[in-house]
Every structure is written in C-alpha cells, then in structure tokens.
Design goal:
The protein is mainly α. The chain has one domain: MFS general substrate transporter like domains (Growth Hormone, Chain: A, Up-down Bundle), CATH 1.20.1250.20. It has 16 helices and no strands.
Amino acid sequence: MKASTRSFIPLLLIIFTYAIGYFLVFPVFFRLILDNSTGMISPSISPSVKYFFLSLCIGLDAFGYMIGAPIMGAVSDSIGRRKLLRLSLWITLIGYSLPIIGIIRSEILWVFIGRLISGLASSSQSLAQTAVADMSEGHQKAIYFAVISIVMTFALLIGPPIGSYLSDNQLFAWFNEKTPFIVALVLVTSTLFLMRFYSDHNQKVNEEFSPTLKNLAMAFQEAISTSNLRKLFILFFLSQLGWAFFYQDIMLYLTHKFSFTLNSASLFMAYSGICMSIGLILYRYIIRYISLQLLLFSSLIACTFSFILWGITESAVLLYLIVIPVSVGAGLTQPTIMTLLSDSVTPEKQGWVLGFAASSFAAPWCISAFLFGVLSEIDLSYPIMVSLLSFSMGIFVCFSYLNQKQSHPVL
C-alpha cells in the first residue's frame, strides 16, 4: 500500500468516527429527553424545558467544535497535525464515556459535559480535512473533499437508524440508551490504533507562526478582511445553517405532522443520505464540465426551490421526491466551498483557513440545535422557513462572489 494511501485511510476514519458519533447518538437524545426513557429528568418538567434540554444535548457538541477547530487548526500549522490528532482522539474517548455515566446515574449533567468535551475534541475532523489538503491540489483536492463528504454522508445515512435500533430494547433485551455510545467508543479506539499509519510529512510547517492569542486574532482578522475569503465563509455558514435547521428538524417534523414513527423517520434521514451520496459520487464527473463557482451557485438555487416545495406540501409521498434536490444540493456545496477556500491560501496557512471553515460549519449546527426545538414548538414549519431564508441569502452572496474579480493572489 502506498504511503499516501496509508495516511489517507486513518484520516478518513477520523472524519467518519466524528460524523458517525454525532449521528449515531442523535436518536438517543429523543428517547432520553422527550420520552424520558431512563427517568433522567423529572416527569413534571414542561415540554418547553424538554425541548431546551434536547437542544443542549445536540448543540453543545457543535459549540465545542466551533470553539476548538480554528484554534487546533492554527496550532497544527506550527507543530504538526499528528500530535493534535492523537490528543483529540483520546479526549473524544472521555467525551463519549461521560454520557454513559450520566445514563447509569440518571444525571443529565454528565451528558451535557460529555457532549461539550466530545465537541471540543471533534475538531480532529477539521484537522483530518486539513491533512488531506496537505497531500493534494487542484481538481484532485476537490475530489478528495468529495470523498470526505461521501464518508460524512455515509455516517449521516447509517447513523440515525443504527442509533435508533441500538437504543431500542424491544429488538434485543441488551440494547439500551448506552449502546450507541459504547459503539462510538469502539470506533474511536480503532481509529487511534490506525493512527500509527498516518504521517504528516506532507505538511509544510509554518515556522514563523506561533499559536498565541494575538496571532490567532490576527489570523481571524486576515480571514474576515479579505473579500474573497469572507464571502466564502459567509456562504459556508448560510448553506450549513439552512441544512442544519432542516436536518435537525426532520424527526420532529415527520413524527408530529405526518405521524412517522421514530424508526421510520430515521430511515427517511438515511434515504436523504443516500440521495446526497449519489450526488457526491458523481461529483468528480460534474466538475469536469462545470466550474466550482457555477456548481456552487446552482446547488444553492436547487436547495432554495426545494425548501419552498417542502414547506407547502401536505403529502408524505412527495417529501421523498422533494428531499432529493435538497440533499444533493446541500451535499455538493460542502466540498466545493472547502476546495475554493483551500485554494485561496498558501500551503502554510491551510490549518487556520480550514479551521475557520470548520467554525463556519459548526456554528450553524450549534445555533440550529439551540433554536430548532423552540421554533418547532411554536410552529413545525418555522425551521423550514429559516432554511429557505438561509439558502435564499446564500444565492445573493454567491452572486456577489461570482461577479467580483477572481484574480486575487493566494494569501
């Protein structure tokens, strides 16, 4: 096996482990909070407080990711990726262990702390993407990022239904709410073992950069002051905000408005993942005939019109058709924006620019996690309206990005 392949496999597994860990435990929180399956919360707690607890369980992970990714990305530029990747995986083990303690002790605080710690550690996913950028360039980089998106989408596809069934003791008596977390721990441990095959020799270390708060602030200022980068960060934020509100609202929307069961709603999420995967598999062929910029613009338009249809349909059958362009379009935006961002800076600055990109990715999931439950309690269509607004705004930002001069020098 080639050295680059030996390095690429553990990087993909790190990305998969983060994604599957996030989506695997997603249905568990519905059982723990809304169904109160383990008696972790008081039966007298109001529905609004339950939704708030649900938002915390989902949102603390994204909040930790948002804070940790740019810091670890910038630090890895100067000291190397491998050390931080191993450290973050060890911390991830702690993050997934604490919710198990919380379930055993029926204390939800342990779940909250564990989710925050796992979110901080999950910035390893951003580091892994940066390491992939170290070993590629041009269209090859776009294809690698598409492969990463496929891996993440595969986790989206299988995570919710597996997590739903693994936590359902009606299937097997030894299945319970702890089982998905135990499976996640096994995956992280396996990835730690495979890290022995990864080497960061492809990285160009930025010896002039020291990871101080002042330098991190200067890097952030450089990122937002450059028009090209700023618009790409905004596009990443808006597209992920729209997808995050939609994706995290699917279960509530389907179970409350169309009377889906939790398992059938999880299967619908898996179906959307299949649609996204097909689009990403075709990505390498699509970019042969269309520029990355135009592909981004087309994807935003497809998502916008699909959300309009999603909000007005009353047929559950039609949802299976409407979700196709939403899933495909949202899936194509991620590798496209990541490639455009990576190509905008020199190799020595890959860590910080993709770290800030990770924050642009995580912040919407954090915001939507804290708000989608509250909005859904008021009206189930409100999260969909936020998704529609986000992608609509993204069209205008993308139009501005396409019309500005693309001859900016690489930073």
